[in-house]
Amino acid sequence: MIKGIIFDLDGVITDTAEFHYLSWKQLSNEERLNFDKLLNEKLKGVSRAKSLDRILKHNNTTFSKTKQKDCLERKNNYYLQYLKKITQKDYLPRIKKFLQELQASNIKIGLGSASKNALSVLERLEATPFFNVIGDGNSVKKAKPAPDLFLYVAKELGLTPNECIVIEDASSGIEAAHKAGMKAIGIGSKEVLGKAEVVLESTNFLKLEIIQNI
Ligand code: B16
Ligand code: MG
């Protein structure tokens, strides 16, 4: 029986992908690196440091550790400026209602996000009170597609993996959920998220029945 739902943040609760894109774009322009929307898509659910690795690889270049650290800090500062724009109106469709429905049904709610800024984003949305456990980019060492983050959140919720369902928009997140022994609902396209037990085009289609029948 499903007793807990673990939500990804970016792309499931709110859409910060555009802010990540604009921040990486600014950094890339300054560093004369190629960066476009297609590459940004491949950074979904990927940690900040790994995202920079992918951008450098895409450009067939390497940076010293010191320069990498500086770039990561600059990118994050740009991103933090964009986060100030988020308000409680910026939930993705039906998400707030769905969180309320889960709460009313006594289903535990966890967050499993790769972002080190997850708490700030939840606070800007005024969503923090919905969550029984918040797992973010600081909670575990191994990022998605490793199962560690979801296992950590399930344990903190006091649930076994098979009592939890993960909701994710990135294929790395679906892989992490399955490795953790959890079923997954993918938000996005079937081509990308086809391995999830259920794929929904948008958060607008999230319903309690789906959770009960998965
Ligand atoms: P930060 P999620 C992920 O969040 C984003 O999808 C990904 O694009 C970003 O690089 C990562 O968080 C790290 O974010 O730089 O804020 O630590 O989808 O796992 O909620
Ligand atoms: Mg995501």
Automatic annotation (TrEMBL):
<feature type="binding site">
    <location>
        <position position="24"/>
    </location>
    <ligand>
        <name>substrate</name>
    </ligand>
</feature>
<dbReference type="GO" id="GO:0005975">
    <property type="term" value="P:carbohydrate metabolic process"/>
</dbReference>
<feature type="binding site">
    <location>
        <begin position="8"/>
        <end position="10"/>
    </location>
    <ligand>
        <name>substrate</name>
    </ligand>
</feature>
<dbReference type="InterPro" id="IPR010972">
    <property type="entry name" value="Beta-PGM"/>
</dbReference>
<feature type="binding site">
    <location>
        <begin position="43"/>
        <end position="48"/>
    </location>
    <ligand>
        <name>substrate</name>
    </ligand>
</feature>
<protein>
    <submittedName>
        <fullName>Beta-phosphoglucomutase</fullName>
    </submittedName>
</protein>
<dbReference type="Pfam" id="PF13419">
    <property type="entry name" value="HAD_2"/>
</dbReference>
<feature type="binding site">
    <location>
        <position position="10"/>
    </location>
    <ligand>
        <name>Mg(2+)</name>
    </ligand>
</feature>
<feature type="binding site">
    <location>
        <position position="144"/>
    </location>
    <ligand>
        <name>substrate</name>
    </ligand>
</feature>
<feature type="binding site">
    <location>
        <begin position="113"/>
        <end position="117"/>
    </location>
    <ligand>
        <name>substrate</name>
    </ligand>
</feature>
<feature type="active site" description="Proton donor/acceptor">
    <location>
        <position position="10"/>
    </location>
</feature>
<feature type="binding site">
    <location>
        <position position="168"/>
    </location>
    <ligand>
        <name>Mg(2+)</name>
    </ligand>
</feature>
<keyword id="KW-0479">Metal-binding</keyword>
<dbReference type="GO" id="GO:0008801">
    <property type="term" value="F:beta-phosphoglucomutase activity"/>
</dbReference>
<feature type="site" description="Important for catalytic activity and assists the phosphoryl transfer reaction to Asp8 by balancing charge and orienting the reacting groups">
    <location>
        <position position="144"/>
    </location>
</feature>
<dbReference type="InterPro" id="IPR036412">
    <property type="entry name" value="HAD-like_sf"/>
</dbReference>
<dbReference type="InterPro" id="IPR023214">
    <property type="entry name" value="HAD_sf"/>
</dbReference>
<dbReference type="InterPro" id="IPR023198">
    <property type="entry name" value="PGP-like_dom2"/>
</dbReference>
<keyword id="KW-0460">Magnesium</keyword>
<feature type="binding site">
    <location>
        <position position="8"/>
    </location>
    <ligand>
        <name>Mg(2+)</name>
    </ligand>
</feature>
<feature type="binding site">
    <location>
        <position position="51"/>
    </location>
    <ligand>
        <name>substrate</name>
    </ligand>
</feature>
<feature type="active site" description="Nucleophile">
    <location>
        <position position="8"/>
    </location>
</feature>
<dbReference type="InterPro" id="IPR006439">
    <property type="entry name" value="HAD-SF_hydro_IA"/>
</dbReference>
<feature type="binding site">
    <location>
        <position position="75"/>
    </location>
    <ligand>
        <name>substrate</name>
    </ligand>
</feature>
<feature type="site" description="Important for catalytic activity and assists the phosphoryl transfer reaction to Asp8 by balancing charge and orienting the reacting groups">
    <location>
        <position position="113"/>
    </location>
</feature>
<dbReference type="InterPro" id="IPR010976">
    <property type="entry name" value="B-phosphoglucomutase_hydrolase"/>
</dbReference>
<feature type="binding site">
    <location>
        <position position="169"/>
    </location>
    <ligand>
        <name>Mg(2+)</name>
    </ligand>
</feature>
<dbReference type="GO" id="GO:0000287">
    <property type="term" value="F:magnesium ion binding"/>
</dbReference>
<comment type="similarity">
    <text>Belongs to the HAD-like hydrolase superfamily. CbbY/CbbZ/Gph/YieH family.</text>
</comment>
<dbReference type="InterPro" id="IPR041492">
    <property type="entry name" value="HAD_2"/>
</dbReference>
